From TrEMBL:
It comes from the Bacteria. This is TIGR01244 family phosphatase. Residues 4-110 form the Beta-lactamase hydrolase-like protein phosphatase-like domain. Keywords: FAD, Flavoprotein, Oxidoreductase, Quinone, Transit peptide. GO terms for biological process: sulfide oxidation, using sulfide:quinone oxidoreductase.
Length: 567
């Protein structure tokens, strides 16, 4: 925990964890204010979990969330009210502490001189010059005076962002590239399924962000608040402005924990878990290995979601453990899928159904989880009947693995870059924005109809790198454009030691990377397991994130000829 003192009564900090509560209490903190909306990060505990552990420690907690860079005067006033009523000292926190500091600053407008607000924030490590400029400018964002300018700006330092930055710099070492991301750490999220299955240690799935930023790239450690594509600019948390010649958008997606009533309050206790959170994947394994019989439920929300196979991967690994432990016959397993099919590409379904039957799994399609009562251990599902009518069914559970509904991040959904559904609106082949020619997107936030997997981002990165350099008029890229074919991969862990390796393109067309005699993707394979367990992690860290485009060279089309045909 990294707390910064603003006043004798107020400290601000980046995201805190439930495990910090004892130390906070020992340090004398008597109240918390959370200024970070739930679901911003995969390593972020929901506020209900913080509130529950704070209550046990004798600390009061309040929830006053704000989107990055969009702290309002009204929220500043609400912050002042909370500060007046809560016991002191108070610790306010968000992702970095910037939103909390901004709320404090707005609450002090008219009470303290501006220079004193600035100096106090600066002494705590937060630069509020942009916020003060906004106040002085009557609330208008001052986009006409950019503070930073880069040739290529990348929003997001996840798998897609780091990979495309590395590909750009490998192709054009002198390129001026900046990556915007506020996170201190980077996660290998495909490993969390194996953490939940007792195969990986969760600590092996995380590295410091600073160690992964490609050499030659600038790292702007901040959150994006808004886009101004008509002015080739974006606004950061704290109201700083960044200008660009080319923009690449890849911030990932948002896990909507609050879309399911009671879920946020139940996570991490009473048998409720999810491999989609860093701190909960180990809890999944604890539940699995300690279950000696009972009812285990696994859920899948409506599409799109990150890795469509992940919900059932967790289920198969759990069932395999219970079989090996001799308690499978005492365990009732239910799979509740909001969709109508076990897997979107039918060629892989027969192999999966063999495991469904072998494990005795009860399949429930058109069942969307709508509520969780953790104390009573009851899950409520909205069921869509064959005639289109809907009703609700309840199931008791001893453990439940939940996959939350997922959507584009808030700052994307409300931006000019978004389509009607909130996703970045790009051409599915070139990944270029349909309205802004100097904007590209890749990864989970785009509206391309491919599976949202790390394998897809790995295939998209060289496509975007090539097309951005072509747009910059650099080298051989200027005469051609790269096309993405929709490739995605989903290694379905059907048991410990075997995987059904699903690989496909747009439209569900099979796209195996290996000859059938080596790995038949439609059948469970031990070699595919070794690929997932031993080869893919180093391929991710040392290949994909280093700009090594092994087996993902994009299809190139003569851009001049294409333009002539179109014209």
């Amino acid at each position: 925990m990294d707390a910064h003192k603003l006043t004798a009564e107020l400290f601000v900090a980046p995201q805190i964890l439930p495990a910090d509560m004892s130390a906070l209490r020992a340090a004398g903190i008597r109240a918390l204010i959370c200024n970070r909306p739930d679901g911003e990060g995969n390593d972020q505990p929901v506020f209900a979990e913080i509130e529950a552990t704070a209550r046990v420690a004798g600390i009061e907690a309040r929830y006053l969330p704000a989107e990055p860079g969009k702290v309002s005067d009204d929220q500043g006033a609400q912050f002042a009210v909370l500060m007046a009523e809560l016991p002191k000292p108070v610790l306010a926190y968000c992702r970095t502490g910037m939103r909390s500091t901004t709320m404090w600053a707005l609450s002090q407008t008219g009470k303290l001189p501006l220079h004193e607000i600035l100096d106090t924030a600066q002494s705590a490590g937060y630069d509020l010059k942009g916020v003060v400029r906004r106040i002085a400018n009557g609330g208008r964002l001052p986009v006409d005076a950019g503070e930073l300018t880069h040739e290529v700006v990348i929003v997001g330092g996840g798998a897609a962002g780091i990979a495309v930055a590395a590909s750009l710099l490998a192709r054009s070492p002198g390129l001026d590239v900046a990556i915007i991301d506020p996170a201190d750490v980077h996660y290998y999220q495909p490993g969390w399924t194996l953490v939940g299955g007792g195969v990986f240690d969760v600590r092996d799935t995380v590295r410091a962000m600073g160690s992964l930023i490609p050499r030659g790239a600038h790292w702007i450690k901040a959150a994006v608040a808004a886009f101004e594509p008509e002015r080739d600019a974006l606004i950061l948390d704290g109201c700083r402005v960044v200008r660009y010649q080319q923009l690449i958008v890849c911030p990932g997606l948002k896990l909507d924990w609050h879309a399911i009533d009671g879920l946020a309050e139940s996570l991490g206790r009473n048998g409720v878990t999810s491999n989609y959170l860093y701190q909960l994947a180990p809890y999944t394994w604890e539940l699995v290995k300690n279950l000696r019989g009972g009812r285990a439920l696994f859920t899948q929300p409506p599409m799109p979601i990150k890795c469509a196979g992940a919900p059932q991967k967790a289920m198969y690994l759990a069932a395999d453990h219970w079989r090996r432990a001799g308690v499978l016959d005492k365990t009732e397993i239910g799979f509740f899928n909001a969709g109508a099919a076990l897997f979107g590409v039918p060629e892989y379904v027969p192999a999966l159904m063999e495991y469904v039957r072998a494990y005795g799994i009860h399949l429930n399609f058109q069942h969307a989880l709508s509520a969780i009562d953790g104390h009573r251990r009851i899950a409520t599902f909205a069921r869509t009947n064959p005639d289109g009518t809907k009703d609700f069914v309840q199931r008791e559970f001893d453990m439940i693995h939940v996959v939350p509904p997922q959507k584009a991040p808030d700052f994307i959904r409300v931006s000019p870059l978004a389509d009607a559904a909130g996703w970045v609106d790009v051409d599915p082949a070139t990944l270029r924005h349909k309205r802004y020619a100097n904007v590209h997107a890749l990864g989970d936030a785009g509206n391309t109809p491919n599976a949202k997997t790390a394998a897809a981002a790995r295939a998209q990165a060289p496509v975007v790198a090539h097309n951005v350099l072509a747009a910059c008029g650099r080298g051989k890229e200027a005469r051609s454009e790269a096309h993405y074919n929709g490739y995605g991969s989903c290694p379905l862990t059907v048991e410990r030691g075997k995987i059904v390796l699903a690989e496909f393109l747009y439209g569900g067309k099979l796209a195996p990377s290996f000859p059938k005699w080596l790995i038949d993707g439609t059948r469970p394979s031990r070699l595919a397991w070794l690929l997932k367990e031993r080869i893919l992690p180093p391929l991710y860290w040392e290949g994909m994130l280093k700009g090594r485009e092994w087996m993902v060279q994009p299809e190139l089309v003569d851009a001049v000829a294409t333009k002539e045909v179109v014209s």
